Amino acid sequence: MGLVIMTANLHQPVSLYEFGGSEELVRRICHRFLPQFQSCKHVLDLGCGRGTFLELLKEKGIYATGVDNAQEAVDACRAKGLLTVVKDDILSFLSDKVDAYDGIFCSHVIEHLKYEDGLRLLQLCYRALRAGGTLVAVTPNCSDLQVLGEIFWLDPTHVRFYPQALLERMAALLGYERIKSGSMLGSWRAIPRRTIPLYLLRRLLLGKYYGKRNTYLVGHKPSLSVMTGNF
Description:
single chain, 7-stranded mixed β-sheet
């Protein structure tokens, strides 16, 4: 008997957000970083996705530009009336931007890049920021065992982790100041009610190694700065 191999339709599109959580969850994560941009006049959202952070900025009266290289993301933004969205590779987009933005938000982007490109991303963000500007970067937390063992690998375009200590060092080398970083869950609403007791037990037993899926870094470009790095 011959072996019959069933093959899937390799051209069947898979949504970028199948494993990325609901928009409400993403909104709650993004909302935590709004205070970092409250005094900004123009914010750049790199890897803007469905436009969740762009919507939050718009609600606060802050002008923002979104960039994403996925047509699905751009279409989702424009369907919401978020018209200042550019379809482009983020490194290409940043290549000619100098002192252009008061703030840059870069959530779940750097883990899609190898180290050299990740460093280049932070370099280009530094150059694109005006003096005194703020960068916020968010990425999966590799100290969280659930992220390390499963969640990170659900996205086949992920390349590598960027641990908190590495992000801090990269930012410091490039000239960012007042750097702070940490890890967070994002929202208690991400936990189904019936599993909250189990979640709390695991948090008690595993401490920092469970329950905080996101690592973040906040860095500021000095008000009077000398450009660092080779551009």
